[in-house]
Amino acid sequence: MEYLLTLTCPERVGIVHAVAGFFVEHGCNIMDNRQYSDRDQGRLFMRVHVEGPGTRLDAMRVDFAAVAAAFDMQWEMHDAAQRPRLLLMVSKFGHCLNDLLYRWRIGALKADVVGVVSNHPDFSRLAESYAAPFHHLPVAPETKPEQEARLLEIVERDRVDLVVLARYMQILSDDLCGKLAGAAINIHHSFLPSFKGAKPYHQAHARGVKLIGATAHYVSPALDEGPIIEQEVTRVDHTFGPDELAAAGRDVECLALAHAVQWHCERRVLLNGDRTVVFR
């Protein structure tokens, strides 16, 4: 059996020794170990992938709790074979949705897509072609609380581990953002905070940009300002009109979001305040 341990704690002598010693005592072989010391914050971040003799995960967690308490750790331990359950959300731009569904179908995305939610019916047939349940949840200002309550019902019923806003063009309420903290990823059509609002590629064209990019980040109540997980760029020039910029932008949006979702599913992303530590 293989386990994934992720942790963060105040930096001090003996942490790595204690973690390694714990796994040695339990007959585990360390297959991969990544660590990072944030000297400004005085905190250590670790991700450890181990192979063990088949001890039950709950027993391993109970035993490790004593080590964690000794070093004031915030930690999680998971079965490495467990595939996170994803709920994808989309509005009327389907490129990121289609990319994630395709990666899931061919086995490149190590997760299970348990459903697609949209405030429009446009991509119901696309979802059905991948055998992904489709939930049409229309929303208006006066119905937003009810629509978000229905969304949370789906999250709970289907045991969703991660909500992915694959170009879902609705602002989530502060309450919903709080309930999905650390478990919802959004894709933004630029390097944050540039070119917010409508027609971002028209704004980029008007400014004569030479690089366009996309930013995948965790959802937070502050619009498009959650902890950044991944950013991608591509070079453009004066020959690109708004449509060509948008086409290039779709490619980097797909790539940035796919990387962020994959790394989250592999437990490679640890929150560090308003930033992230990503063990690629």
CATH class of the largest domain: Alpha Beta
CATH topology of the largest domain: Rossmann fold
Order of helices and strands: EHEEHEEHEHEHEHEHEEHEE
Average pLDDT, rounded to a whole number, is 94
- Tally of domains: 2
Strand order of the largest sheet: 7-6-5-8-9-10-11
Structural class: alpha/beta
Low-confidence stretches: none
**CA-atom Rg in angstroms:** 20 Å
| Total helical segments | 8
What's the β-strand tally? 13
- Helix percentage range: 25-40%
Shape: globular
Distance between the termini: 22 Å
The CATH homologous superfamily of the largest domain: Formyl transferase, N-terminal domain
Architecture of the largest domain in CATH?
3-Layer(aba) Sandwich
Beta content comes to 25-35%
Largest sheet: 7 strands, mixed
List its traits.
single chain, 280 residues, alpha/beta, Alpha-Beta Plaits, Rossmann fold, 2 domains, seven-stranded mixed β-sheet, globular
